[in-house]
Hints:
- This protein has helices at 3-18, 36-39, 44-53, 55-58, 73-87, 98-113, 120-125, 133-148.
- It has eight helices and no strands.
- It is mainly alpha-helical.
Amino acid sequence: MKKPLKIAVVLVLVGIALQFVPRTENYSEIVPDTDLLKAYDATPEITAIFKKACYDCHSNTTEYLWYHNIQPLRFLIDQHVKEGKEVLDLSEFKNYSNRRQKSKLKSIISQVKQDKMPLKSYTLLHGDAKLSSLEKETLIRWTENILDNY
Length: 150
């Protein structure tokens, strides 16, 4: 067998073997009292905006699509979610100190205003996660109202 063919066979076998690596899914049916939306009695409109644009990467309720089960995509997505929750975990928001909560709220406003969130790489695969101007304004206004009450 020629070298390129051997390499191709090995890569295919490794790819198949990777599909059997177990994973722990980042999903819980239970919404804790520490969740941002629950803690601040978010309206259905605000909840819908946060769920579609933020919660897959920044909460305990990641919704996995079919391609999340294919390695190496699964590894990349799991890593992305882990990193997203390290920066901001909306499910644990009320466990943050008041100072950190304020900082995170300001960051949400800033990131949305500057079109840094949701990430472009995320909205490419999740077109519905892209926020309209009205949704951005609504999310920013709601977040500013929380900040004003601190």
